[in-house]
Amino acid sequence: MGEAAFEQTWFDQTHSYLTQILCQPSVWFDGFFGQHRAGEDWAGSLVRWQGAYRIDEKDGKSYRPEFSADFRLPKMDKKLKLVITSQGRDDRTSSFPDKDPYDLGTSADPDTATRNDKTTAGLRYHLTDTRKTRLSLGAGLKLGNPVQPYVRLRLGYTEPLGSSTLLRLTPSAIWIKGEGTNRSLRVELEERLSENALIRASQSLVHKQLESGVQWGTALTLFERLSHVTVLAVEAGARGNTQPSNRVERYRLSTRLRSNFLREWLFLEVEPEHYWPRDDQGEYHLFKAITFRLEMQFYS
């Protein structure tokens, strides 16, 4: 559904204005770090805002905003990016302890997570960028009280296994002042079932220097493209920790429907789920929840 099919309204004009305002800093940074030449093409930027409203049998109602900005700095080097992210609280809908590979801190247990700051700002440089391998080095600040500098190294490796199977390996390491060195590994195996269907098996491991054991998460996800603007994802997953004993902390079964509506940059999601958290007695009890998400993207 293209934007050309819609009549331009004040809503579109507002979106265009915000896009210009939010992406313009990339031009400013070009001028600050390098020599700016008017009229010359420069690489695009992406700003993403998402608001999630959750109704949960166990935890009641909650709202989780999320913001990310990815500004390229082409006058310095096309491989250099300015990255800003901000999350309001831990994501209770994730089957993984590292849902976002660039997330600097995720609670091992979403049922005991409290509101914390996860705002970061830094630079990321791609040391290697090929069809199979992407190696990046990042450094910046984790904003909070106190402000914590960090350095991160991340490798992404993709290997085709036949005509319809894909293997992805993503090891990473990050040093954060006051928290030490944290390491993670994500392994994903994808199988294309048809032009409109894909199944993915994922395994994630996270080891934090100040915490005992290894946090882990596993999931099996089926993606189905229902139309050119709507995708359905069905997922079964679990997460846990190897210490004090290797046990599952939470099982989860969910269905997510994501649709691009009205505009190409506007998305709506609804995700009902069943989940079984482990209590202090080692028993699992069923709870139901539903999450609604609205997402806007600004890009140029």
Which SSEs are present, and which pair or pack?
Blueprint: H1 10-33, E1 46-56, E2 60-72, E3 80-87, E4 119-129, E5 133-143, E6 148-160, E7 165-176, E8 180-194, E9 197-208, E10 215-227, E11 230-241, E12 247-260, E13 266-277, E14 287-299
Antiparallel strand pairs: 1-2, 1-14, 2-3, 3-4, 4-5, 5-6, 6-7, 7-8, 8-9, 9-10, 10-11, 11-12, 12-13, 13-14
- Structural class, from helix and strand content? mainly beta
Distance between the termini: 19 Å
H/E topology pattern: HEEEEEEEEEEEEEE
Number of domains: 1
Mean of residue pLDDT values: 79
Second-tier CATH architecture: Beta Barrel
Short descriptors:
14-stranded antiparallel beta barrel; 1 helix; Porin; mainly beta; 300 residues; 57% strand
